[in-house]
Amino acid sequence: MADRLVIERLEFEGFVGIDESERTTPQPLAVDLELFLDLSQAISTDNLQNTVDYATVAKKIVATAKQEQFCLIETLAERLAEVILEGPTIKEVRLWVRKLRPPLKISVGSVGARIARGCCIGRPSQNESAASWLVNHRHLLPRGQALDLASGEGRNALFLAQQGFEVHAWDRNKDSLEALAAKAATLHLPITTRLIDLEQEPSIPVETFDLIVVFYYIQRNLIPAIIKSLRPGGIVIYETFLIDNHERFNHPRRREFCLGHNELLLLFSELRILAYREGQ
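Below the sequence we write its predicted structure tokens.
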């Protein structure tokens, strides 16, 4: 794909480094981006709705760098690629992220990592690669039956099936579930899909699942059912937007789709917390 948008030397602050001081003190970073997508409709209509708003991309990068910590610049690069590829429009991203003032005794201009990610280069996009919080905590996961709530096209369901889980993927979007079922069949993975509107049918079988994952979906009245549906020793992994994201970037547009500070801890207070992170 020849069409691309370019963002050159976007400067921001983030938390990345082997030393703890680097992960607690913001340091200057920069990234260069090439975003590969079909620009033909944008060119013919001269309408922003038919392309990618580079200001939105920049805000996502700055927010991710401020809210998360990384030991390696390579991990930061991967995370930024995941964020950029979350939507269906951008097919490939090439980026160069770097520390502008690395803690070295010798003089260098910068140190960083260059990566290319996306479906056009033989690497799945974020729609097909599992959420980093899930991947990074896979050592905590019990074996058995897993439920992916609001699964979409199943990036997390596919990952869990590849880890040996028998996966149930629930969503209200028929097209997404059909796409997931086709991928699972091609890969010979044990994934069962269910078309369900959880807002209309907020129930889950009791003591059925060893693992329940929910990403970027919030339905507060469903959480008691999630807890009751866990088998003894079962685990919930839950990640969604914080209210800070709405207040800073107006995304999601509705406040009720965001968690308040420490709200997730309160909602799951009857469970033991094994890992928790909240954006700053």
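The beta strands are 4-16, 27-36, 69-70, 92-99, 111-118, 145-149, 166-171, 191-195, 209-215, 230-239.
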